[in-house]
Design goal:
This protein has 227 residues and is of the alpha/beta class. It has nine helices and eight strands. Strands 7-6-5-4-3-2-1-8 form an eight-stranded parallel beta sheet. α2 (28-36) links the parallel β1 and β2. The longest helix has 22 residues, at 159-180. Bound molecules: pyridoxal-5'-phosphate. Pyridoxal-5'-phosphate is lined by residues 22, 24, 45, 66-67, 152, 194-196, 210-214.
């Protein structure tokens, strides 16, 4: 089942759109089913769970942190994480830089932008993100590479609302690229789209989708054996 769904997604996704298989609350055995048909990029939202899986799974897996990250936990994932999608403050960016340096690494980061209606979702507003870039402190951080932006649409059946949110993030991405990263080829990633809205996200210009439920089925948040 998992293998079939991965293969189907790989067939469906345009070649410029990367698939992050969101494996949170699913077991290493299930991750391996996806791995065996060529999936290498996996997304997790808890530091402890990601670290435990990293330790037992093949080392060519690229681990993406997609959930809210506390500064005091950066040290646990800095040695191996491939990309952090959820940078939502300068303080966190500076901490990732500091710890990445200790690990002799440069860590790819996305700035998380709040586009949904819901109050609870983390991320910068457009203005907060503009302010952060205007401060220019980030330019001296040599051990993080800002690769682009990440956003989550409102959880709704209203397709128009979702499309409006994704389109506004795409326009904002173009603005930021033009204002700050015009000649920077590595600023190339717009992470948007999950199981229920990835098709709309791709139509709006996503280059990276984060898909869990469609691949692995519903998550069981009570399970304790999810490593
Ligand atoms: C859980 C999660 C996903 C995947 O959600 P699905 O609806 O299961 O595809 C994507 N992005 C983030 C940030 C998540 O926390």
């Amino acid at each position: 089942m998992i293998a079939e769904r991965i293969k189907e997604l790989h067939r469906y996704l345009p070649s410029n759109v990367q698939l992050v298989a969101v494996s949170k609350f699913h077991s290493s055995r299930e991750i391996l089913e996806a791995y065996e048909v060529g999936q290498r990029v996996f997304g997790e939202n808890h530091v402890q769970e990601m670290t435990a899986k990293y330790e037992i799974l093949p080392k060519d897996i690229e681990w993406h942190m997609i959930g809210h990250l506390q500064t005091n936990k950066v040290k646990y994932i800095a040695p191996f994480v491939s990309m952090i999608h959820s940078v939502d403050s300068f303080k966190l960016l500076a901490e990732i830089d500091k710890i990445a340096k200790k690990n002799h690494r440069v860590i790819d980061c996305l700035l998380q932008i709040h586009i949904a209606e819901e109050e609870t979702k983390f991320g910068f507003s457009f203005d907060e993100c503009r302010d952060l870039l205007m401060q220019e402190d980030w330019k001296s951080l040599c051990n993080v590479k800002i690769r682009g932006l990440m956003g989550m649409a409102t959880l709704t059946d209203n397709q128009k609302e979702i499309i409006d949110e994704f389109s506004s993030l795409k326009s904002f991405f173009n603005e930021i690229k033009n204002d700050w990263f015009k000649e920077v080829h590595s600023f190339d990633t717009l992470s948007m789209g999950m199981s229920n809205d990835y098709k709309l996200a791709i139509q709006s210009g996503s280059t990276m989708v984060r898909i869990g439920t469609t691949i692995f089925g519903e998550r069981d948040y009570s399970r304790k054996d999810n490593i």
